[in-house]
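Worked example

This section walks through a single chain of length 285. The input is the sequence exactly as stored; nothing has been trimmed or padded.
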Amino acid sequence: MSPRFEHRREHRFEHNGIVLAAREWGVPDGLPVLALHGWLDNCGSFAVLAPLLSGVRLIALDLAGHGLSGHRSADATYNIWQDVGDIHAVATQLEWDSFALLGHSRGAMVATLTAGTFPECITHLALLDSLVPQALPGAQIPGQLRRSILERDNRGQRPLKCYPTLAEATAVRVRGDSPLSPDAAPHIVARGVEAVAGGYCWRSDEKLKIASEIKLTPDIVAAFVRAIRCPVKLLLADAARISRCYGMDQLLPQLDIEVIPGSHHFHMEATAPQTALRLNRFFAS
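Given that input, the structure is written out below as tokens.
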């Protein structure tokens, strides 16, 4: 196994007119791994974990609309399956015929859809605190589209919020819906804000906060899950989080689940070494 190194290299990819930013950690000849962050995070989400991983070449993306990546067009929203095409484009540009996926939260859901769409390409599927997107029965989808349209109209009238200091912007992540420690939050903030007249604003596309236009039905989600061929590792912050798998875990006989008690961002906190230990075993298998 090649020794680890902490060299960090920035990447830029382009797909459908959008620039996708990324950061690389690891060894050049290591197992190729694409890492996908959660909703309103960015690739800084992996800054604590990545240096603890052995024998991998990890490229963590800023998914579209997040971090240093570009935003989708004004008429587009962020339906979760759109990221699958971006991931395939990035892997193609890297000339990776096969690679592993590491996803956290929404990024884990995207990783699962990707592994079901391109099962011949994915060698390992490592998921942190999520497995699949929440599905809706078909009868509820018209209401979902209505909600998305109305939220978009409403949000488009709001001015972008600005924070006078970087500390105040950081405090938003420390006390957010998925709180981060004061040590972890700056990794997200560093790529997540930009200086503007009067302070700092979040770079993320405001349309990310709008309800999805369309959600997948349970049958469609199950079809993606059944198509996965590779080994799957799911690390949960709490055993109760298994309920958020909506029973789809029962469709994966190759799924291995472990609990690492902690917060939703346990891969960024004091439990990062425990997370790395389990991932190193999994990626070495």
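What to look for: Residues 166 and 277 are 33 Å apart (CA to CA).
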